[in-house]
Amino acid sequence: MTTSEATASEATAPDAGTPDVEQLQRHFDATIERDQRIEPRDWMPEGYRKTLVRQIAQHAHSEIIGMQPEGNWLTRAPSLRRKAILLAKVQDEAGHGLYLYSATETLGADRADLTGKLISSRQKYSSIFNYPTLNFADIGVIGWLVDGAAIVNQVPLCRSSYGPYARAMIRICKEESFHQRQGYELLMTMMRGTDEQQRMVQDATDRWWWPSLMMFGPPDGDSPNTQQSMAWGIKRHTNDELRQKFIDMTVPQADALGVSLPDAGLAWNDERGHYDFSEPDWTEFKRVLAGSGPCNAQRLERRRAAHEDGQWVRDAAAAHAAKQAERQTGAAA
Q1: Of 169, 193, 259, 273, whose Cβ has the fewest other Cβ atoms within 10 Å?
Q2: Residue 126 · residue 215 · CB < 8 Å
């Protein structure tokens, strides 16, 4: 038993024989203050648990829905190599979703319930996945910009205060870094190709730039959960800080690639030591998040159909598990 667990055990069993919520809260606060991890067996405030379930579930939903725009191109990839790369990436995303759903289960959430909330629009997923992939250059730009933004957003989560989430993010971020490099390599290859291929890359960049900036969430002033999540150590940086970091990282990459970013206000600011940039269209962000994006209905309908089509698999797995349990009980008797 670790020192933290021993202390928590003592905190959950005061002399009176019943948990002292104030004492448990003090222990929780001290653990956060020391920048240590909260584990599933530890006491936690209900608000902390609910915030984690909401955030991790949204992340899991995003990984699963995010398979769709790329999966559309599995049968149309221009070569066997590109098909193998894309198939591996889609498989990775399925795995990420499973890791994250498992993390929510350590908080007492039910995976089936979370899926039900997703397909009934009671829980959200990242707005970026409601945009269409119009040509194969979109696959490269998703790898470069979307996965690049995901890396900036998710690497700090490897130090999240909740242990299962932080540990899941370590593997996820390693795999996302491969996705980002694969996307950039695809775009570099196309930019060395024909004029038409170069135009495809520029067109895809123009369409995905602003949605990528919106991935970090609304401006800090309009983000009601950010400050509390940072106080609890769930998040490490604000939305605007992460967005700025992504822009500063991406502009030199765009220059090396030979594409322009669609923002006339993008310019280096010597005084700030960062790039200035224009504000994204937050009205569009809210519209897409509310369910009125180009592909919202399609994405949810396909997820709903896949869930219903897979019911027989879940039923068979449950029946098999019950039969195995029955046999073990009989053998023990």
Answers
A1: 273
A2: yes
